[in-house]
Amino acid sequence: MSTMTINGRLAPLPDDPDALLVDVIRDDLDLTGTKLVCGAGVCGACTVLVDGAPVVSCLMPARAAANTKVTTVEGIGATQLHPVQKAFMAHDALQCGFCTPGFVVEAAAFCDSWRRDKGTAIPSREEIGAALSGHLCRCGAYDGIFNAVAAACAGHFDGVDPNPPRVEARQKVTGSAKYTVDIRHDGQLEGVLLRSPFPHARITELDLAPALALPDVSAAVSLLGDDRMVRYVGDPIAAVAAKDRKTALAAIAAIKMTSECLPSVIGLDAARKPDSPVVFEKSSRKKAGNVSEGAGGPAPWKGNVRGPTAAFSQKPKKVRSWVESARQAHDPLLFEATFRTATQSHSCLEPHAAVARFDGDSLTVHVSTQAVFHLMELIAKRYKLGHDKVRVIADHVGGGFGSKASFGIETTAAIDLARAAKAPVRVAFDRHEELSVTGYRPATEIAIALLPFEQGDLKALSLTAHADTGAATNSTIAALARLIYPAQAKQLADYDVVSNLPPGAPFRGPGGPPMAFALEQAIDEAALRMKLDPIALRKRWDPNPNRQRLYDWAAGLDVWRNRKTSAAQTGRYRRGVGVASGYWLYLWQPGVKIELKVEGGRLIASTATQDIGQGSRTVIANTVAHEFGLEPHDVDVRIGDSRLPEGPGAGGSRSTASVIPPTLLAVQKLKDAIEQNARRKPVAGSNAPWREMIAASPDLCVTSVRPEDSKPTAPGIRSPLKDAGFMGMIFGWMLRRFSNLAVGAGVPSSVQVIEVEVDTWLGHVRVLNVQTGIAVGKIAAPALARSQATGSVIQGLGYALYEARETDPRSGSVLSAGMEDYRIPGIADTPAISVHFDEAGFDHVLGGSVGIGEVATVPTSPALANAIRNATGIRLTEIPIRPDRLISALKGRTAA
Amino acid sequence: MTSAPMTASAPRAEFRAAGTDLSERRRSGVSKGPLIDLAAAPDTIGVTWGADGAATIGALTSIAAIGADPRIAAAYPGIAASALGLATPQVRHLATLGGNLAQRSRCWYFRDPHIACLKKGGSDCPARTGNHLYSVAFDLGPCVAPHPSTMAAALLGYDASIATSQRPAISIGELLGDGSNGTSDHALASDEMIRGVRLPAPLPGERALYKRAISRSHAEWPLAEVCARAVVSSGTFQFIRITAGGIAPVPLRLAACEAALQGKPASAAVIAEAARQAGSGANPLPMTGYKLDLLEGIVHDVLERLAM
């Protein structure tokens, strides 16, 4: 048997020629800091050092490691943290942390070699970008990573251990943070799903016996619904649990089934044809998924087209007649166009995963989820168990972005298999599953008409959106145009186009980015035609007080004031500057509780929420520490466990606004209790009175519930739904009644200014700099808010420039199901990003803070397209603006 | 994704060098046959130099080593730049020159274990009538996948000869075929392996550049790529050789471009006109016409810089 030396210890290598180094490291040696993500050498999460050189362990045969020295992230900081690890902590160069170990290993090797060759010189962004080009981060922590690597190379972190702004940063940079995929119980089995190879079929017979007959296979369960239908390639059919993945794969290959294939239809254009095969008969429409954060209302269906939902329209007949008249009169101010956006995959680096384990009649499920508490309720309901018998745990979650907010098949399959096998079972999707069947932001086609009055006010606006929702419904895109730019009349119609594609899911500001892509370009075009500054026009048409302040900020930026017109440029490279606005609703979750206690002289704050990278642990720790005059590390924060008091889901940008107000109430209660129980008052003049009081306090515990916001608000601050009249009120009521989400007063807003350079020969866009102005109230954790803001921009740039799910037009098979074909931004694609926080506007919220995650990505794609328009004179109506599209547009041709 | 595979190609033994291509196909189930691991021998690893200044690179030499070799960079800058331009640092540390030449297609239909295609024993090419956004613009055979080897395109431009376990010296053309065989990515016999690559001595005064068009900044398979060598003296292209990848089932020499430059002044007008010839002879698919625009752009870019 051959061996390797790993982190200084000898370890055996398996004889299996197909064993890969990553599997030996993770499964045999339980060194779970090394992550398996893409399995194709693209993302770098599995990077380890082999004889000092960084390599992708997901592609390296284990036997090739014989007689080598291997170092994993656990070995990098084994005795003391590497300067790179300290720099990552100090610069908050991470969010969810799933990619972090790979980045740390590579950056440490780069830093060591840089220091050997160049001393403490600071590497350029280009050098860092090239060195880390084999790593991907979906949260978009690149801005912090640039700064961290530069600082580590410069020697700034050779000494002191920093106090990181993110409280769990140390676990994430050392690889000790345990994610769901890292959980391993004794006797744990591996579950794998059999998925449909057909776009549309009825599975008439399913024989699991041949799978169960194989050695080491412990359970096989059907996942078919009562109608036994599969409606897309990849629809789950069955699942098996076996001693390892290889055995489980062999078992699902042994399952026998007979099926009756049905006619199928793929995508937005085909499914809209009147004679297209119907995906959901009337009786089965409830089986469709949901692409929005809230529950949907009733809507008409015609074949595969659900809609219109047009409740947010306002005098739509007037819009039709005014636009028609303007068209007839060739009104030069009438702008009409059709915009198209691509399907965007969440691409969480930690796949959807669940590990289920029964202990008697008690069920513990580790799930990579955005909602530990709500998921516990759903599991209890489905399996008819008491809430006290179900525990959902998610200590760390490797990204979610909306796709992990629901009760997914990975969880039911793990539970069903664990029950059948009488053993713990892990189900972790592979990358093909993750990029094909776990949800996406639907592609859209948005027809827009915008008509100003001659004297310059906004007269009429029309948006008709068709969303490519696959086996799902409830897109809300056009309707969002009601809550910005008031007009005399608006016609806003949303349609879902259902087809035999996997179901879409909520994705970071569902409906917001595609709506803004169309609307904000129409506003830009209106400004051009009216010969007005696009910021000045927005200031005129958009009275929202938060954005009014952001417009003033944007108008004063040098990059904006110094922009040129497109006519001024003729060379190969052309530069342009664009602006766009975005908003999101301020949502919070009623009923959220924070428990705050003193235990053994330490403060402990608890709530059943979870941190998917947004930083809720830190927000709570900072809030408590600030009120007591302590440091964040003086507070233990317990989250990620449904046994804790009810906490918010991480979706709808609700976390911060849901946890800070009850935390502040709890702090006041606990202060009172500590004072009442104190045997003596602190020494007069003490600079840390609460530290002494807490240390001396008996154990105490208080709990507070999220209060309603105060009614009086500053002028102009009100719920945006009030601008949508009666239907707005109904919408707000439904959201609260059916989705447990309250819409608060005030509108989280973002205005972004982007400068690009277009290479007209190679159809390439280089983003030079981004200025993002954000109004979400007071910033509770500044470094983390900055990370969210820059990460949102980077994800928005991916949406605008690179990302598109590609499918086979016949079967709907997702072709871009690997990370080389589904292209998310890399570190070298990251521009300089300046973040401006405008902290006013939410004084009616206790603590003054609301969420940032969604609003910060809404304006990016139109700001970028407007910048390209400014650079080249060409308006790109379809994203992503890839080289194929841009070069065709520049040459005046239609792209394929 | 996992379900009963629909392909039924007879498992055949595959050679494995570093496995950077093969491991992904093993995991997905596209490759199922027996494996034969290649062991490094003195003649298959590292670079040896002849008295005439010609280099021979062992097949198991890593791409990173080729990219980092200062003597290669001086003598064959197009080879070094190609090596540094492909994949990612962590893949380049593992991947070998021989493996790069013998790797299989990156076509997303080929890589999907549930979809039949010519390269997996199927009867037709699903990309041709399906989604072929990244396929060829020079349609030379039944399969429309571009050849994935960046090193092959560069080696073609350097007139490299390949030593195999059965043949002492074959050309890149003989190694990869002419693109008319859609079932395979190379023309090696089933038990034939690449042992090394011999490069003729460089021409006096020659320079070379490599460039690929991609949507992001790094780490992406090329939409189109070009390696160009030139000897420019007295303001004239005394020698020019342009090869391209990512656009055809095999790497191509852009003969029409070369003809428009050979012996001509290295002027902006001559270069622009030559770049316009880049797509000469192309027959793009409905979705791949853009590759010809990109090819023209890359050729224009590298020629301008070579003429400077």
Description:
The complex is a heterodimer of chains A (896) and B (308). Chain A is of the alpha+beta class. Chain A contains 25 helices and 35 strands. In chain A, strand 1 and strand 2 form a beta hairpin. Chain B has 308 residues and is an alpha+beta fold. Chain B has a domain at 215-307: CO dehydrogenase flavoprotein, C-terminal domain (Enolase-like, domain 1). Chain B contains twelve helices and eleven strands. Chain B has helices at residues 22-28, 63-68, 70-75, 77-85, 89-94, 97-102, 126-129, 150-157, 172-176, 255-261, 268-276, 290-307, and strands spanning 14-16, 35-37, 47-49, 55-58, 161-164, 170-171, 194-199, 207-213, 224-233, 236-245, 252-253. In chain B, a hairpin with a 2-residue loop joins strand 9 and strand 10. Chain B is globular and about 55 Å long. Chains A and B meet through strand 4, helix 5, strand 6, helix 9 and helix 25 of A and helix 1, helix 5 and helix 12 of B.
Largest sheet descriptor of chain B: 5 strands, antiparallel
Known CATH architecture of one domain in chain B: 2-Layer Sandwich
Q: Poorly predicted ranges of chain B (pLDDT <50, ≥5 residues)?
A: 1-9
Strand percent estimate of chain A: 15-25%
CATH 2nd-level architecture of the largest domain in chain A: 2-Layer Sandwich
Which superfamily, in CATH terms, is the homologous superfamily of one domain in chain B?
Answer: CO dehydrogenase flavoprotein, C-terminal domain
How many domains of chain A, as an integer?
A: 4
What class, by secondary structure content of chain A?
alpha+beta
Total number of β-strand segments of chain B? 11
Helix content of chain B: 25-40%
CATH class of the largest domain in chain A: Alpha Beta
Computed CA radius of gyration of chain B, to the nearest angstrom: 19 Å
CATH class of one domain in chain B, named Alpha Beta
Largest sheet of chain A: 7 strands, mixed
Structural category of chain B: alpha+beta
CATH superfamily caption of the largest domain in chain A: Aldehyde oxidase/xanthine dehydrogenase, molybdopterin binding domain
Number of helices of chain B: 12
Strand order of the largest sheet of chain B: 3-4-7-5-6
Strand order of the largest sheet of chain A: 8-10-6-20-17-18-19
